[in-house]
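#struct-help
A.M.: can someone run this one for me? Single chain, 232 residues.
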Amino acid sequence: MTAQLNPRGDVAVLVPAGGAGVRLGPGAPKALRPLAGEPLLVHAVRRIAAAPSVRSIVVAAPAAEVSAVRDLLAPVAPVAVVPGGATRQQSVAAALAAVPAGPEIILVHDAARALTPSGLVESVAAAVRAGRAAVIPVLPVVDTIKEVSAGDLVLGTVDRSALRAVQTPQGFRREVLVAAHAAAADALTDDAGLVEKLGTSVSCVPGSEYALKITRPFDLLLAEHLLTRAGA
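D.P.: on it. Structure tokens below:
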């Protein structure tokens, strides 16, 4: 049964899904790698579509896979699929350009965070709705962090109390994200970094342990355990 999005929602979610997934080993693009019998992208979109505020979803797929991804997601939720770019940043920009009129809150979400709860989507959206220009979900850093030289010598221990591990979805007022991409001069690893370059404040909300990023083979094993044993 296809999930129906909320036509009165105020949120559009962009899903860049063109990464190769080199650290996962050889195979299909990362978003299309199987997790418990279904591609990561299917798991991610299903959870996004379950969030009541979501009005539209735009996926940026590898150019050669647009038709296949559209067919793959058709039974999951009404999703627009556009060709992505050579980089994540270009893929987000392509998806952003395809967002229809209406939603004023834009979330950017990694397909690799396939188990992200729909509640986190709502939490980020609510923070933007409350007046914040940009919002990221974060978790405290629990490991001791060392600064290390190019020669693998420890230079010092970093105070982790002020550090946070950043997740997605990241949320933005639409005009803020559009301006950030229009002004982008450097390739950064997340959209909040582009917004920071504008001098706009970025706020934090608590993240979720389930929003882990699936990057290595071990991450797939952990995610499958969470799905089959913990009911994620």
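A.M.: thanks! The chain has a mean pLDDT of 93.
D.P.: also worth noting: The longest strand covers residues 54-61.
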